[in-house]
Amino acid sequence: MSSSRGPSLRELTVQALSSVEGGYDRLAPKFDRSPFRTPDGVLEATADALRPLGPFGRGLDVCCGTGAGMRVLSSVCQEPAVGTDFSAGMLAQARGAHPQARWVRADVQALPFAAAFDLAVSFGAFGHFLPSERPSLFTGVHRALRPGGVFAFPVFALPPPTSRWYWALLGFDLAMRARNAVWRPPFVMYYRTWPLPAVRDDLTASGFTVTTVPLTALGQRRDGSPRYRLVLARRADSPADRGEPAP
């Protein structure tokens, strides 16, 4: 599950029986040595895909955790970046690792920013949001971006039913639903609740124009499709941005 210096099974169990915020406050000192930190390969592939679209001005890491996404923002943005998360423990770790950035504790479904950023990114956090919460999350990011700003995040292709990973992820999600049905506070973490077509629809409804690019460096599935895609959601503020005829 993790390195010898990472969280123990007992610590992971305590996290799973806590609220999302409380669990991450507890896990924060060892989070970067756990299997839950976004792999460096995903960060590097994302930066490589964004670099031709930049350089960007100011960047925002949404649900920043301990700040792994700052590696991406610092490589493609010209101004110091901002990270936001609701876990004080995770933000404390991020401040220590990236003192050059600004860190803001906030509920990402009510981001306290307006037209302040040219690029927003997010890594590994969306399993903590139910489908019904996507619109408020996306609307807040849209509001935080400047006209023409981009919201970028990687998504992985769900494995086919013939894969053991399909059943492992399904089993995990069912176990979490059972846990949340009988235990309070809930710990929201699901792997199968953000399919790309539904995410694309919700981004479009929130005012974005959406494209995706394959992250080929992260490999392919057996059918030749990419294992990961990078979603590029651009803030649409004019009829031309939305692909509509000008009045």
Description of the structure:
It comes from Trebonia kvetii. Keywords: Methyltransferase, Transferase. The protein is of the alpha/beta class and 247 residues long. It has one domain: Vaccinia Virus protein VP39 (Rossmann fold, 3-Layer(aba) Sandwich). The protein has helices spanning 9-16, 20-27, 40-50, 70-76, 88-97, 134-144, 164-182, 196-205, and strands spanning 59-62, 82-85, 102-105, 117-121, 145-156, 208-214, 228-235. A seven-stranded mixed β-sheet has the order 3-2-1-4-5-7-6, with helices on both faces. Strand 4, helix 6 (134-144) and strand 5 (145-156) form a beta-alpha-beta unit. The termini are far apart. The model is unreliable at 238-247 (pLDDT under 50).
Which key features would you list for this structure?
247 residues; alpha/beta; Rossmann fold; seven-stranded mixed β-sheet; 8 helices; disordered C terminus
Any low-confidence stretches, pLDDT <50, length ≥5?
Answer: 238-247
Reading the helices and strands in chain order gives HHHEHEHEEHEHHEE
Overall 3D shape: globular
What kind of sheet is the major sheet?
A: 7 strands, mixed
